[in-house]
Amino acid sequence: MANIFINSRDILITIDPNLVAFVLADGNYSRVLYINKREISLTMGISKVDELLKANGGKRNKFLRLGRSVIINHIYLHKIDLLRQLLILSDGRQELRLNLSKKLLKSYKEAVVRAIEIKGGFDKNSIQINDNHEENNIG
User: What are the structural domains of the chain?
Assistant: First the structure.
C-alpha cells in the first residue's frame, strides 16, 4: 500500500499503512499506532481515517473496523483472548495489546473462525462487527 499524505494548514503528515497496527478514536481526533509503538495524533475523526485507509487499500484492504472506536490491521492479528478481554497484534518482534469489550472480541473471534472455515482462509470482507459499548486501553 502507498503512503497516505494528510495535509492541514500547518502540517503535512505521512502515514505508512503497512506499519499501522491500529487506529483509536479519541473524540474528534484519532490516534494511529504503528507496530513499532510509534504514535501519530490526527486532527480528524476515525470515520475519515477509515475512509482514507479503504481508499488506499482497494480490494486488498487489510484494515477492519471493530465497533465505533477502533480499526485494526488484521495482518498483525496474533491473539484474541476473551477471558482477559485482550486483542494482541504482533509482527513477530513487537507486540501491541488492546483491551476491548468481551462482546466485541467474541463477535470478532467468531467472524474470523467462520471466515476460515467457510472460505478456507481469512477474508476480512466477510466480517462485519458492531459494538456500541466498547472500551479501549493500550497495553
Answer: 4-138 (2.40.50.1020)
